[in-house]
Amino acid sequence: MQKSLHIIPEKCTGCTQCEIACSMEHEGIFSSSKSRIRVFKFHDEGRFVPYTCTQCAEAWCQRACPTGAIDINARTGAKEVLATACVGCKVCTIACPFGTINYVPDSGKVAKCDLCGGDPACAKACPTGAILFIDAEATGFEKMRAWAAKTDTGASATA
Amino acid sequence: MGWARKLLRVNLTAGTCTTEALNMEWAHQFLGSRGLAAKYLVEEIDPKVDPLAPENKLIMATGPLTGTSASTAGRYTVTTKGELTGAIACSNSGGFFGNEMKNAGWDMIIFEGKSPKPVYLLLQNEQAQLVDAAEFWGQSVWDTEEGIKAKHQDPLIRVASIGKAGEEGCKFACIVNDMDRAAGRSGVGTVMGSKNLKAVAIRGNLGVKVDNVEQFLEAVKAGKAVLAGNPVTGVGLPTYGTQVLMNVINEIGALPTNNHQEVQFARANDISGEAMHAVRKDGTKNLVTNAACFGCTIACQRVSKIERSHFTVKDRPQYQVASGGLEYENAWALGANTGVNDLEAITFANFICNEQGMDPITLGATISAAMEMFEAGAITTKETGGIELRFGNAEALVQITELTAKGEGFGREIGLGSKRLCEKYGHIDMHMGVKGQEFPAYDSRGIQGMGLTYATSNRGACHLRSYTVASEVLGIPEKTDPLETTGKAGLVKAFQDATAAVDASGLCIFTTFAWSMEDIAPQVNGACEGDWTVESMLEMGERIWNMERQFNLAAGFTGADDTLPKRILKDAAKTGPAKGKVNELGKMLPEYYQLRGWNAEGVPTGDTLERLGLA
């Protein structure tokens, strides 16, 4: 069963534990700048939104890449950057509509979320459950449940 | 690792920035942040220096855990000789600025001298430069922060700056980072302003490394589980913030009211954490959400919006947005202590403190003292420019707050702080503080240990140097009777030493509602070389405490300054569980000196200094 990152912004406190977990997982250091998931703070609204790659089924980055450096991990569904093939041309960073694949000057290649091979560090680090890694077919399940709970079935009237 | 092993020395007089290796011998003795910065300050300045002279230095410092994944590890401190107090000052702030400094590869920045014109430091990894700040001088913290990010086209720059208050010489100006996080007390922003340093802007992407990754991550994970499972750090603080305390402290009769004339505020509930959750007339709430500083899994910060129709913001859209809301100290100082029960007005005054960089505790306490003098006839509308500065007057509170922020009218006098103001108007008995710094939100007639805490605090009256409220009121780590003095000397010493160690690490002191040193030491040990144990951490804290004490003694303070105002020592509490009580400091202080290894005058003995490696 394929899983997907599922973000619930209203639960986010803006602590950025996801960012530092991501950088440690991929780069071995704590550094928000190196993170493939970023938390956006909208100060005047009191809102925080974590944002990362949604792993498009038909990925713009993959289609744009001239060297075939974006591969699909068959097990996780993640679009992964093949370091051996990436030449750092950045065409993928232009193609991606969401800005979630970015060039890394230190390596001369691009980097993006790879779902940590199926066990994302960001989701494990999130202290509030704002980032979940759940069944890709059921990311809307909790929203459906919430609406279902509000649906008047008439039962309460006769109880 | 943990440390970046590097410090930046900025000579503002000469306009130079130079890199130095961190003194690692000192780092192993004083760890970082509050401890290590104090060591550098003690070594580099004359304790008798005028705080506003170019010879005073201002040190921004991170701890070895700052920037790591340990919960709350985003703290940084500002250490200097404080203008409000003349004592060693160390103010601690959260937000994201500390992490950025560490990510840029710096443990600390030492500012010395005085710039001939307003400047800000722009620090991008190893590149440091002083930039002309003419365009930002006179601007608020909020505009400066946004302006610097826009000018350099980099929204990821983190900024710590002073507002108008720091420029105008308000004695309790603070340094604000990330819009509403502040190194708040003792006038550290006043010192920054005296150096013509408007802001420090940092961007870093070098990352932070730890010594033993596996061991560190394991200790951090265990620590986070403890915070999540604790009722205070897991539920109370995220839900109500520190404002969870307003009704609690009022009920035990330790909520200073009307400049400590009373110990209970009849309208405390109106300005409480619960009130911030209440639905207002327009269907909204004061509290928008809670929020976290860097890496914090507690998330106690309040984010508030003022009701749009309220008189403070009605025609001022810039204040109708969400911003840093009331914490307990601010709500008390601007509320109960001024007798004001208008939650929205207090929230607004707090916004102004953030916007222009003022310590709300000293501001509220000074306004309270002025109100008492006004009601006593020592200050009249002639001095205040027509403002009826009476207890409970929300309009007056807001007016005088805005004037103080800008250094205008009677606000310039409020900007002196309560000690200088009360002296000026012949009522030093109405100054409620120690060593020139005003009390925070706990009346020590109702919480005896806090009296000893205030009297002996190295930065003047302060709750963040040994928060015995935890034990005396909340029962953490174990309950003691707030009206008893027995055992309090030992309690205060233990809290002081542990707090100094936590401050030196880069962690937030709020973790200690749940964590003991048993939880903290393994995290420090995983991050840093060396053998960091519970014992070595506590001894390090004691070392820091004694070094700060020596600085103050050399600056001219004596044991006679370890005291409390007459009102607290002689005038009994009038209501509540502490009715009839004064603070019995005299029963605690001699035992405290003894436990500290100090002589009867409060001076550390040769043996004590020897034992701590301070001789």
Major sheet strand order of chain B: 2-1-6-3-4-5
Which structural category fits the helices and strands of chain A?
Answer: alpha+beta
> Span between N and C termini of chain A?
40 Å
Shape of chain A: globular
Distance between the termini of chain B: 28 Å
Q: How confident is the prediction overall: mean pLDDT of chain B?
A: 98
Oligomer: heterodimer
What gyration radius of chain B follows from the Cα positions, in whole Å? Answer: 22 Å
CATH topology of the largest domain in chain A: Alpha-Beta Plaits
The Rg value of chain A, from CA coordinates, equals 18 Å
Q: List the domain count of chain A as a whole number.
A: 2
Identify the strand order in the major beta sheet of chain A: 1-8
Structure, explained:
The complex is a heterodimer of chains A (159) and B (615). Chain A is α+β, with helices and mostly antiparallel strands and 159 residues long. Chain A folds into two domains: 1-52 and 117-145, Alpha-Beta Plaits (2-Layer Sandwich), CATH 3.30.70.20; 56-112, Alpha-Beta Plaits (2-Layer Sandwich), CATH 3.30.70. In chain A, 25% of the residues lie in helices and 21% in strands. Chain A has helices at 17-27, 60-64, 91-95, 121-125, 141-150, 155-158; strands at 3-7, 38-42, 47-51, 70-72, 79-81, 101-104, 109-112, 131-135. The radius of gyration of chain A is 18 Å and the shape is globular. The N and C termini of chain A lie far apart (40 Å). By secondary structure, chain B is of the alpha+beta class. Chain B has three domains: 6-203, Aldehyde Ferredoxin Oxidoreductase,  A, domain 1 (4-Layer Sandwich), CATH 3.60.9.10; 257-431, Aldehyde Ferredoxin Oxidoreductase Protein, subunit A, domain 2, CATH 1.10.569.10; 444-611, Aldehyde Ferredoxin Oxidoreductase Protein, subunit A, domain 3 (Orthogonal Bundle). In chain B, strands 2-1-6-3-4-5 form a six-stranded mixed beta sheet, sandwiched between helices. Chain B has a six-stranded mixed beta sheet with strand order 8-7-12-9-10-11. Chain B has a three-stranded antiparallel beta sheet with strand order 13-14-15, covered by helices on one side. Chain B is globular and about 60 Å long. The A-B interface holds A 13-17, 20-21, 23-24, 27-34, 43-48, 125, 127-128 and B 67-69, 71, 96, 99, 103, 156, 179, 204-210, 213, 217, 224, 228, 238, 288-297, 299, 303, 305, 321-323.
